[in-house]
Amino acid sequence: MLALDNALWGGTALTNAQILGFANVVALTDTVFDFGGGNTLTLENYTDIAALDAVLTVF
User: Fold this and answer.
1) What is the DSSP letter of 11?
2) Looking at residue 53, what is its pLDDT?
């Protein structure tokens, strides 16, 4: 499970697709979410952004 607090992007209700839109694969090895305002999350050695849809939870 990947649990994210909606405060990361200002508290707005977003769909999983919109949230996954913050993610990019960098250096062919890591997934980096950039939520703006200096809020980032790096998943090291993980590149399958589409698969995150099944495990994403927002609180």
Assistant:
1) S
2) 97
Host domain of residue 43: 2-58
Tokens of 56: 């994403």
- Domain count of the chain? 1
Taking the CA atoms of 25, 36, 3 and 14 in sequence, report the sign of the dihedral they define: negative
Q: Kindly report the pTM of this predicted structure.
A: 0.89
In sequence order, the 6+-apart residues with CB closer than 8 A to the CB of 44 are: 29, 30
Q: What is the pLDDT of residue 51?
A: 97
What is the rounded distance in angstroms from the CA atom of residue 18 to the CA atom of residue 10?
A: 13
| DSSP for residue 9 | G
Please report where in the chains the tokens 């769909």 appear, as a residue: 15
